[in-house]
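can u do me a favor
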């Protein structure tokens, strides 16, 4: 293609692009508001501009959206069901028996275990919602918060434990002191007292 042929092809390509964008450019002054998909007017603004002023504005999300996990620690009975059903092992739980009375959850369930560690690594979470389904006290929920970007990957781990490491160590020591010491088992090398043998019954034959 010649030099002037290249120029002609460029102008033709530019005209084709303007033919598509110009109608939208004329409608650009009509700005679309932040409507959620559940809004009845969502499809009435198909030709309006959709750019939003982030982060001051955000797109509404449904109330049943499954995004960042949240846990109400006071309602957790440490049943460990959420950690066992998680397909990506993003939930880490540590617990031990409580010495004092921990009270009840909001639904009346008895709390018997201390909860020093309850960590959720949202960098691993696949947002399946299985953990919230099996939770008996419904303390684990998925919120509408979908934008939680971080500069450091470790910040994606959220801590919901009720005890600091120092408090947990102190309560473990208290539990060890309150637990009665079990009596030592008898030495395996000791011989057991021989039981008296029962006399054997003599079976008489018919021909005797």
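np, heres the sequence
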């Amino acid at each position: 293609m010649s030099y002037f042929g290249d120029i002609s092809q460029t102008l033709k390509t530019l005209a084709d692009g303007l033919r598509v964008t110009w109608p939208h450019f004329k409608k650009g002054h009509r700005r679309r508001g932040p409507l959620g998909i559940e809004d009845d007017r969502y499809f009435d603004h198909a030709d309006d501009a959709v750019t939003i002023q982030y982060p001051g504005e955000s797109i509404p999300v449904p109330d049943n959206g499954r995004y960042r996990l949240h846990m109400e620690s006071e309602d957790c009975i440490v049943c460990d069901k959420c950690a066992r059903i998680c397909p990506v092992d993003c939930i880490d739980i540590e617990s031990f028996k409580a010495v004092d009375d921990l009270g009840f959850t909001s639904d009346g369930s008895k709390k018997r275990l201390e909860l020093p560690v309850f960590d959720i690594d949202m960098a691993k979470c696949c947002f399946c919602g299985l953990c919230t389904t099996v939770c008996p006290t419904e303390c684990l929920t998925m919120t509408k918060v979908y934008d939680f970007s971080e500069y450091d990957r470790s910040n994606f781990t959220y801590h919901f434990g009720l005890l600091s490491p120092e408090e947990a160590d102190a309560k473990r020591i208290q539990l060890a002191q309150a637990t009665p010491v079990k009596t030592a088992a008898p030495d395996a090398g000791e011989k057991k007292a021989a039981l008296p043998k029962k006399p054997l019954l003599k079976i008489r034959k018919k021909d005797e």
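The chain has a mean pLDDT of 81. hope that helps!!
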